[in-house]
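Weekend entry, working from home. Most of the wet-lab plans are on hold until the incubator is repaired, so I used the time to fold the two sequences that have been sitting in the queue since the last round of cloning. Logging both here for the record. First:
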Amino acid sequence: MVSPDNALSGRKSPVLSAPKPHAVNGSEILNRPAGCEIIFLAAGCYWGVEEIYWETAGVKTTAVGFMGGYTPNPTYEEVCTGLTGHTETVRVVYDPQQISIGEILQIFFECHDPTSLHRQGNDIGTQYRSAIFTTTDTQFQIANELKAAYQEVLTQHGKGEIITEIHAPGDTLFFPAEDAHQQYLSKNPDGYRCHSKSGIACPIPGAGPLHLD
């Protein structure tokens, strides 16, 4: 992990200066409709993770960007050098009346391998590390509880330790990526998807396991 002193300097202006409507549902990608909540999730390459969430009932809009590092307003190319400290992250806006935060996080833990440090499949680097950036105390509490519960299940199956970072509300800033990366797999249907799943269901109260392919 790069140190703050050695990180790239970045820039003052956002690289996504004029966000376009969501390529799938036409929503404002950086908006939050009344009654909705936001959580930021890093589970490897953000192209495929964003697709999973825009297809999830109860999710109102999604956007991709970078969090957890030191460089302000980084470009995708800068993040890929590993010299910004950021991880590829999806901004998920959801209606808690339609989908619970537990279900949102169940999808997160099941769509990648949370025991893999700085790597998902063939994607290697600190920009692919697993992380949850919460925006409410309830999200923070449930994320930690679910991580502990899933760890018990993984341990029973001989898996390693979950290394997912869980950040408290307000702990870090979200920097949206360039327009070409927003809803990338809608614009490029045959594009790259990398999900290195553990194949083990993550149990939560009131929701059954997902079907893992």
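Second, folded right after the first finished:
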Amino acid sequence: MVKACGVKDVDQRAVVKHIAAFLKKSGKVKIPEWADLVKLGVAKELAPMDPDWYFVRTASIARRLYVRSPAGIGAFRKVYGQSINRGTRPSHFKQASGSVIRKALQTLEAIKWVEKHPDGGRILSKQGRKDLDRIASQMPEITSD
């Protein structure tokens, strides 16, 4: 008996890695030319160390839209934001870079995984939901006995 398996049924970190690997392998997602120079927010001190960070962020946004949509750029800025270290002064929350999130959403729109919602924000398309479920169902089973 084959058990139906979706994105919500598997480990979330693992599914984001598998979606990122799929996006990289498919060749449809191009990394922007500024990807090696950009910080992911004002609270960050350095650019990302992982050379495939763009695929991971795009996959993470696709997964978040699968779980909770519609969502816009402002909502994602809050999700990926963090506290900024201000030395001896108290830390404060700062939102993530909107440009990176906007480009990732535009990338997902270009491959027909995301579409604009009439009331604002973005939602996952039927094609995107089907592809994410297929990727999740192809993940190797992890048994913890």
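Plan for Monday: verify the second prediction. The mean pLDDT is 90.
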